[in-house]
Amino acid sequence: MKLLVRWSATLGIAGTAFIGSGIVTNFTALALPEDQVLKKLDPVPVFTIADEQGAPLVASGEDQAKVAGVFISQDDANQFVNQLKTQNPELASKVKVVPVSLGEVYKLSESAESQENALNFAYVPEQEAVNSAKTIGEANNQPYQGGVPLFVAKGGEGKGYLTIEKDAQQVIPFFFDKQQLEDMVAKFKEQKPDVAASVDIEVVPLEGVIETLETSEDKMLEKIVLVPSTESIQFLQNSSTQNGGITAPEATPEVAPEKTPE
Description:
- The structure is a single chain.
- This protein has helices at 2-11, 34-41, 74-87, 89-92, 102-112, 127-139, 178-191, 206-215, 230-238; strands spanning 22-24, 45-51, 58-60, 66-71, 95-101, 119-124, 149-155, 160-166, 169-175, 200-205, 224-227.
- By secondary structure, the chain is α+β, with helices and mostly antiparallel strands.
- The strands form three sheets. Strands 1, 7, 8, 9, 10 and 11 form a six-stranded mixed beta sheet that branches. Strands 3-4-6 form a three-stranded mixed beta sheet, sandwiched between helices. The protein has a two-stranded antiparallel sheet with strand order 2-5.
- Helix 2 crosses helix 5.
């Protein structure tokens, strides 16, 4: 978190509609195999600043640790390069914004853990998402503690997670973009007005979700799907080098409540 704050200060940055179709009860908290973790992270594009050889731009962190910024927003990454053109034109002429999957950053981070003087990665959240996270946190008496905000909805008598249908299965969407989640919630409320008043939006940090995927022992974790922001989806759609792409979950109007395994 301190590395993230340091990067935020360095950068001058303060730190599709889907139909809700069901509710899944809370996780009880087997870790997912690495390939399954990567499957969840790979569809999410993030953005780094790198030179022509692909080496990331590195800042100095605590105890002279090497830190590379990972931007959730391409616009923020572009703004940083523009800022750099004013502060250090020579350096700015040698770097550019490079898209990379969140899964690739995860793999690099994991492989670096055992290395001496390893490169660290600091996620730089999008400012609007941070502002939304702070507002929600204050309303829920759970102040935003930093990290990359993800937005998820709960509802029903047991405050289960709202789900959508993807590939004929119920999944739990965690959104980088709060507006996308609000669109989903609005449609869910139209379909299920009897539980509309019980629906709440909560914030969880991306870093915490990744750690949970690595360590928790709950089969329900397999249902988590990370939904890239509208900006990121547009980037993927417009990128000629993108392979595969984001497939929007297919919606169903039916409720599919599920129990958490004991």
